[in-house]
């Protein structure tokens, strides 16, 4: 299983249910990685998309504690175990955890690969991703090297988990 996220230099990922910054090359990377695949997200992440609609050309899985929640065009589950059970139907390499913070935290132990866009800037934020550089089971497998978007520096970093949990 994979996860994909953009973080700032403090591993922040959002403010008031919005991304910290929109970098076209990062958005393209996200689309390229996840199109035709399975994306797992929380309710707030789904609702942050344009018109609150699921992402096109992907199997959208939403985890929410609200038993009455319905998301047209998405599969809705109410606990982690139910999502993990559903994910057994798909090849692990085709599954991407896409947020938000609570979803990342709950599924991180099951992920073998993390695609992290590291942005060299500290934003005002209220939501964070775990710092993989401080977790011994995670190591850097590849890096794109420095890229720029106007005056913003960023890089694509691929981490690998040496001991992911089985689903």
In short:
It contains four helices and twelve strands, in the order E-E-E-H-E-H-E-E-H-E-H-E-E-E-E-E. With 167 residues, it is α/β, with parallel strands linked by helices.
CATH superfamily: Dihydrofolate Reductase, subunit A
According to CATH, what is the class? Answer: Alpha Beta
Biggest sheet character: 9 strands, mixed
Specify the structural class. Answer: alpha/beta
Unreliable stretches, pLDDT < 50, 5 or more residues?
Answer: none
Number of domains: 1
The proportion of residues forming helix, as a percent range, comes to 10-25%
What would the average pLDDT be, to the nearest integer? 97
CATH architecture: 3-Layer(aba) Sandwich
- Report the β-strand fraction as a percent range: 25-35%
- How many strands appear in the DSSP assignment? 12
Characterize the overall form. Answer: globular
**What is the H-and-E element order?**
EEEHEHEEHEHEEEEE
* CATH-defined fold name: Dihydrofolate Reductase, subunit A
Task: Give the helix tally.
Answer: 4
Radius of gyration: 15 Å
């Amino acid at each position: 299983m994979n996860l994909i996220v953009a973080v700032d230099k403090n591993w922040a990922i959002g403010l008031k249910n919005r991304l910290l910054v929109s970098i076209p090359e990062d958005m393209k990377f996200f689309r390229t990685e996840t199109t035709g695949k399975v994306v797992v997200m929380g309710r707030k992440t789904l609702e942050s998309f344009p018109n609150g609609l699921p992402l096109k050309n992907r199997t959208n899985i939403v985890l929410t504690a609200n038993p009455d929640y319905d998301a047209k065009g998405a599969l809705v589950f109410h606990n982690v175990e139910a999502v993990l059970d559903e994910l057994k139907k798909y090849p692990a390499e085709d599954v991407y955890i896409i947020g938000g913070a609570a979803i990342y935290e709950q599924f991180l132990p099951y992920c073998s690969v993390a695609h992290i866009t590291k942005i060299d800037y500290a934003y005002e934020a209220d939501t964070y991703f775990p710092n993989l550089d401080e977790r011994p089971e995670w190591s850097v497998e590849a890096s794109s090297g420095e890229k720029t978007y106007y005056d913003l520096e960023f890089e694509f970093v691929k981490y690998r988990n040496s001991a992911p949990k089985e689903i």
